[in-house]
Amino acid sequence: NAGVTQTPKFQVLKTGQSMTLQCAQDMNHNSMYWYRQDPGMGLRLIYYSASEGTTDKGEVPNGYNVSRLNKREFSLRLESAAPSQTSVYFCASSEAVPTGGGEKLFFGSGTQLSVL
Amino acid sequence: GESVGLHLPTLSVQEGDNSIINCAYSNSASDYFIWYKQESGKGPQFIIDIRSNMDKRQGQRVTVLLNKTVKHLSLQIAATQPGDSAVYFCAENTRGAQKLVFGQGTRLTINP
User: What's the longest Cα–Cα distance across chain A?
Assistant: First the structure.
């Protein structure tokens, strides 16, 4: 039982390049999330998927796209990377209660992305 | 406590002492609160959570206190150990919002 698995762990891009961050969970969770974490700051939500087939914007969605491929997998794509997207990216999942009101997130180990 | 900016609040404690990490929240509609621990190079790890119908919850060596009147949350760690060194985040959720909002984090360092 690996929990939440992210790939790659490290990536360096040049400005304008594109890439996709992969995330998979084996806990049969309904909801999945992508966060970014910048130095000295908390986690900021980029996109989330409350259930298979749905995605919604979070706090900082600009410059990103997501795909909920199936219940297990949720990918994050940078179409044209910018230096401002240099960050550590975390994928998370939760069982999620449909009416909200509390959800424990389980996080992957992160992807450190540098855009030059 | 939590604050906005590039510099994380830091709490230094002696090994064996108790640690208290504070968090203020602003949304009076928040009804679920959670504490995470993040060690260097790792993802956040769940510590303990509490719902708004409670004011205290205990786990193994940790206690979370919730004061809804002043919108304040605290994490108490008993007999702090070197392995407790990490950044601690509080997060809140509002019923129906389906997503957690994280604070800025507090760095806990342990002095031998």
Answer: 42
Alpha carbon of residue B11 to chain centroid? 12
Percent of chain B at pLDDT > 70 equals 90
User: Mind listing the pLDDT tens digit for each residue in A14-39?
Assistant: 999 999 999 999 999 999 999 999 98
- Determine how many CB atoms are found less than 10 A away from the CB of residue B76: 15
pLDDT of residue B96: 64
Give dist(CA B63, CA A100) in Å, integer: 24
Q: What is the mean pLDDT of residues B34-57?
A: 94
B1 touches A: beta carbon within 8 Å? no
Strand pairing class (B19-24; B10-14): unpaired
Q: A107, B31: Cβ pair inside 8 Å?
A: no
Cβ-based contacts of B44 with chain A (< 8 Å) = 43, 90, 105, 107
d(CA B64, CA A56): 31
**Terminal CA-CA length for chain B:** 23
**String of DSSP letters for B65-85:** EEETTTTEEEEEESS--GGG-
Which regions in chain A score pLDDT beneath 50?
98-100
> For chain B, what is the total number of helices (H) and then of strands (E)?
0, 10
Question: How many beta-carbon pairs under 8 angstroms link A with B?
Answer: 75
Q: Which helix or strand (DSSP H or E) is residue B107 part of?
A: strand B106-111
